Hints:
It is built from six helices and no strands.
Amino acid sequence: MSLPTNFEELISEATSLHLYNKLILQLNKDLVLANIDLEFDEETLPTSLKLVLQETVFHLIQNKFSDYLNLLYQVDVSELKIRSLDGDDVIKLSEDVTFLILQREWQKVWYKARFS
């Protein structure tokens, strides 16, 4: 599996394989397990998904850092990928982390669809 390198590619692949709803369900599951008070409707548009998740990540970084770390742990985002990001601009950081979260969730959904 080659991972999508940007948000548009990820959404395009998820949509073409009819797995976008499963991506949202997987994200919702991990948000609940991380005790993050956020749930997406299955009909959420991709742009809204990205913006709301990015706002939440930004808020967690700024105000609830331990919850942010818990979310990264629950989703299982690579620590090496997180450390490689530039933390000087928190808005850019939240955008990059949002993509890494969605990328990892996509990986989970793709593997489940492919091998189960």
